[in-house]
Amino acid sequence: MSEIPSASQTDSKGGETISPKKIVILGVGNLLLSDEGFGVHVANELMKLDLPQGVSVVEGGTEGFKLLNIITDADRLIVIDAVKGGGDPGSIYRFDINEVQSCPSGFKTSVHQIGILEVISLSGLIGKTPHTTVVGVEPKSLKMGMELSPEIKAKIPRIIELIFAELRNDGTDSLIVGI
Amino acid sequence: MAKKITIDPITRIEGHLKIDVEVENGKVKDAWSSGTMARGFEAMLTGKDPRDAPFVTSRFCGVCYSVHQLASARALDAAFGAKVPWGGNLIRNLVMGAEYIYDHTIHFYQLSALDYIDIMAVANYTGKDKNLLDVKDKIVSLVKANDTYPLTPRYEPDEFSVKDPDIVISAVSHYIKALTMHANARNMGAIWGGRTPHYQNIVVGGVTSYPDLNQWARFRTMLDEQKKFVEEVYIPDVLAFGTGPLWPLAKMGVGGGHYNYLSYGDFPKDPERKELVFPAGVIIGLDPANIKVNPVDTKKITESVKYAWYKEKKPAHPYNGEQVFDLDKKGAYSFIKAPRYDGKAMEVGPLARMIVAKNPDVIGLIQKGAKPGAVARHAARAIETKLIVDACYNWLDQLLTEMTKPGFKIHDTEHWDPPESGIGAGFHEAPRGALGHWVKVKNKKIDNYQCVVPSTWNASPRCEGGVRGQYEESLIGVPVPDTDNPINVVRVIRSFDPCLACAIHIIDPENNEIKKFMIE
């Protein structure tokens, strides 16, 4: 499913949403710059799976500000992205947003002047800031192209496992089917 | 002695831009605008099924995706010979209407307002309004937590900055209100677009899904709320600032530039395109007392690479453009090409549209003494937002009528398959200005594809003959009394709403701290 979550919307069966907790898995990145699009590729894979109730997948592309509607509507946010952390290509990172905000010289996305992490902190100004975890992979190539590098593509199943581990920690494990 | 200042990057814009200015006797003497990220995504399209182009081009940029999707679909409409039914056009217009409301209000509140107010003045608010006190608490606690990134970095407030705590706190409360309005506007676009970001509904020949009454009603209810915000908050704020504390800047006309304006024209009000919300036209060397608008002849558009990092080539029409990088080229200083109309550097965007349209509100401000420049640009943007809001109601009414007609159509399905060969150009007045896509189809595949985007027009480097681009020209003479605080330079640049090569989204921290979160 990829429709936008909206507080005023009812679910597809026309009833009230049963799960009180809205979990959004948000894959971001630029699909045209090979491994930069990692989060988009993961989101597209996740959409093929049956996910627990209350969990939705959003493929956010290169958005920053325009994800505000999605972020403010989530109780729990798991962001999938390429992360330049200085490790070897294919290294996997996992951190909560509040862990990195305490980094001494700050933390910001490099090129987008107002990136997703800034938007998450802005969301606090109009309501809740969801508990946010980033799961990411160190890219190998950022060249123009719509395919991932083979060794980065090979990390997708592992990343999906890690996302499900996050969901289990959030107490939705009994609902997981289909993987 | 002239002193050179470099501002790199210009913050609170979309993308990556570097500005160099040479300051002499407190004023800018010369300026260079450099797009410091390579684009050239168009090359990826060669050999692809043309019908992919609206989706691929929508990934060029994370900010203005839908505008590329629309311009691309229109280029294909022309190349395929497709005739979009009026119902399809109405839905395309409504998607873009939501986009305009979103883009313009975010530009004013989130990206620009901080150039004109001293945000720290909220701490001095002594009033009793509960909502405003709440705003004060929020901002003060962010400052205390050293967590003000979206509100900073900033230059020091100067003599033009608004420091009155009552005005500042009201502006900041609107800044916060605007965030909620943006989130809602995203959902408006998604009603027709199927999802957000990166809408899915705009394709060659029209749109993909029939509207239903529920969607129609939801859009209209949400539009009511946006209309209220635009009319009661956004426009009054812009006019109160522009004709109040910023009137000296408006009268000075900082950021005027070449006074050449281009609008491709867009948003038909009726199926016969008798009337457009934004008329088409070209103005060379504006004379406010006698505005002369010429028709647009797109054959006169060329792109120069004289000062851009591309292989040397004579200025070419976009149908014949190419992107072969030459990073060692002497004299080059930008990844942005230099589009020109009849050899002239043009301004595109809200101010260009409103002057070409001879909009009475904008012309009225100019007649009162506001010179076309940074402040007038903000005013034009606000005024045209209202025109779009009003047009959305009109389109909704027409859509309802169309929906009830027998044989209601939204797509020209006869022309879905690509032609053996063909060429087409698609034009769209995007929120940031004139956008053009040009496509050549050969053997049912894309043979060449070129885009000339609004910020390419405005942010272009010099061309043959050393003619400056519009940003560059608009900086000449701008007061910079303190070279450590070039706040007027960023005011001018940001008034154009720059958006450059918003291509990369990677999380790239400034230090190596992130490495400790490596888990495998």
Description:
Chain A is built from 6 helices and 5 strands. Chain A is an alpha/beta fold and 179 residues long. Chain A has one domain (23-169): Rossmann fold (3-Layer(aba) Sandwich). A 5-stranded mixed β-sheet of chain A has the order 2-1-3-5-4. Chain A is globular, with a radius of gyration of 16 Å. Residues 1-19, 102-114 and 173-179 of chain A have low confidence and may be disordered. Chain B is α+β, with helices and mostly antiparallel strands. Chain B is built from 13 helices and 16 strands. Chain B has a 3-stranded antiparallel β-sheet. A 3-stranded antiparallel β-sheet of chain B has the order 13-14-15. The model of chain B is unreliable at 501-505 (pLDDT under 50). The chains are: A alpha/beta (179), B alpha+beta (520). Chains A and B meet through strand 2, helix 2, strand 4, helix 3 and helix 4 of A and strand 2, helix 3 and helix 5 of B.
CATH-derived topology of chain B: Cytochrome-c3 Hydrogenase, chain B
pLDDT averaged over residues of chain B: 90
Order the strands across the largest sheet of chain B as they lie in space.
1-3-4
- Could you state the CATH homologous superfamily of chain B? Cytochrome-c3 Hydrogenase, chain B
Structural class of the secondary elements of chain A?
A: alpha/beta
Distance separating the two termini of chain B: 56 Å
The percent range for strand residues of chain A is: 15-25%
Average residue-wise pLDDT of chain A: 77
- Taking pLDDT < 50 over at least 5 consecutive residues as the criterion, the unreliable ranges of chain A are 1-19, 102-114, 173-179
Number of folding domains of chain B?
1
Task: Profile the largest sheet of chain A.
Answer: 5 strands, mixed
Number of helices of chain A: 6
Give me the Rg of chain A, rounded: 16 Å
Shape of chain A: globular
Note the beta-strand portion of chain B. Answer: 15-25%
Report the radius of gyration of chain B as a whole number of Å.
Answer: 23 Å
The first-level CATH class of chain B is given as Mainly Alpha
Helical fraction of chain A equals 10-25%
